[in-house]
Amino acid sequence: MDISIIVPYHGEDIYVRDCLDSLCEQTYDKFEVIFVASEVDIPNEIIESYKDKLDIKAYHTDASHVSAVRNEGLTYATGEYVVFLDCDDYLDESYISRLHSLCVSEDLDFAFGYIEHTWYKRSIFMDKTAETVSDEEESDEEESEETDENFQFDFEINDSDSDEVIRQKKLAGAGKVLIYNRKSIQRITALGVMFNKSFIEKNDITFPENLKYYSDWAFICKAVDVAEKCDGDKQAKYIKRIHNNPIHFPSLVQEIGKDDFELRDKAYAEVKSVVRDNTCDARVKFDVKLINYLVSEAAPAVRKNEDKTWRKKRLPVMSNMCKEFSGKTLREIKFYKRRVIKAIAAGDIKKICKLTGRKNLINWGVRILLGPDRLKIMKEFNYKHRYLKQPMLDNVVLLESFFGKSYSDSPKYIFEKLNELYPGKYEYVWILDKKTKLPYPAKQIKRFSFAYYKYLARAKYIVFNSRQPKFFVKRKGNIFLETWHGTPLKKLVFDMEEVVSASPMYKKTFYIQSRSWDYLVAANGFSEEVFKRAFVYDKPMLKFGYPRNDILHADDREIIAMDIKKRVGIPKDKKVILYAPTWRDDEYYEQGKYKFDLKLDLRQMQERLSDEYVVILRTHYFIADNLDVTGLEGFVYNLSKYDDIAELYLISDILITDYSSVFFDYANLKRPMLFFTYDLDKYRDVLRGFYIDMEKELPGPLVFTTDEIIETIENIDSVSAKYAAVYDEFYERFCGWEDGHASENCIKTVFK
Fold this sequence. Notes:
seven-stranded parallel β-sheet; 30 helices; 41% helix; 15% strand
């Protein structure tokens, strides 16, 4: 056998088929797969399903660390060359062929490819459809999908170069690609490399088995140090998958967290033990990466944390590290870094704080003066360095609905009920992008204005129906009421297998943001169960129904409805059909702006229904399209920008929707509902999963054409009778907690 591919396995069932499928599709097939299960049973069912496609051999080991598992895999390998492949990663189809051809043709010690990082499973990655669409979130600079290496050898081969000169240039280039050019020291890895097995054995290159983390450092540094011939091929792509669920299924790096100084120190000791010459190329390149970490992360931690962990325990270790760097290494770094390293070596806390503090201010200044978003950066600086240090405003309530787009939803009803119950007790600040007439006094500010940052930092009470921005810092004494914005139909956060419609950091970001919530509103027992699991939420759940639905149970709701109908200009003798569709995850113009192709034939509906009905259009706030209703005046009312959809429920006699959670709220009225699901198969099977069975559990018929909609409306009484029993069961399950007092009950719990 030419090649042995060593695949450690620790129970990653959700990833391993992508890994093995990529091996099945390699253009070169003279390889064996050494599958080594550690700490878990061998997944025999999976292994058997690949027996006809791969020469796969499965072993079980008692070793726990991936370092020991890889070493054991080497003992089973029979190939002339070996490749290490993590079972949550996969390969481009030409990866094995390209590196093997390079190794054989040039008689190399090792050949390396190009590591490309992705958040997505193989089918999405290979189809090139995994474009990131923001859900009101900024990108995360720390973990992007871009590759972390600059695959450039940084040398030119001239016609006059001898074979020896070319060899030396390639060795130097390999050290640069495999060590120096990695985005961070964490990402120095033995993955993406094909090694000559005899080269590994002759030089006794192994993974340090005492290390669970960073065992690749010593392995790759020694390989680069002792190699005599190597080369690389950028077209040989190793796909490194970043886990989008670092809470439940973290990769090794995600598992570590940020406080891993001792782990790095331990791994660095292994590097020094196998590459003792601190002036050799491999060691210099590694030490430069270590210096980058010490200067950019460790030294600022000494400044920020006055506890004994960093200043008493870690600083002496850092000092010893810095004393061992060679003059050759120090000449590779810039003046500022040399000054910080000198201060660390001397254990001079005052100098470290002065240098890193000044650098921090300079960085802020450069971003403010020269950055593309200068004003935004200035506001964030004020938030972190000014507003968060000011006293909390104990009687201020900050409210926001749908990212400041409207005065609506549960925050609206909590605001109004607070004013009824406790007049004059609180000061209110509403985040609203457009000036709005409010029934009670409140300061109105725009999202991301200076005032927004100020009150987000200082208001004691925060009432939002969506997530807060990522930069938000929860202060001691701050009380955060998250009302959320609907009973979930589509899978949420940690119930989603793949994140396609949002930032790949969605799960991690959501988890961090939800740690700041003190209370979360659930409309029903179903939502309570989903929120606990999908949000990993274990703080108080307010189980009173949705404040936004109080209006649907109000004693005077008929009077309110007539007033709303008059206000929007709908004749009082006309019945109302409300069409409220949601957005499609995969149809968009740009981040946060979604397309909408109206499949409803409004002119046909006008011809057959206008004597008795009018139609209200109310699209999701994500949808950017302005629907054209020219020629349909008096029959169609486009109220997509109407703030409070609950008021539109009150005046509607029939609801038409699709996959929007609006029907859970509308069911409180016990009025007929139709579900216009013309793209059901695609939406259910491709874009997202649903929590409920749309064909069996909905309290109304699924319709797929305008003709079906019209016929159903013309026979609405018989259709309603047909679904009466299902509707009653649905109402009990999803509306049973609603009694018109949710706002009051939430207030009495949160505001004491």
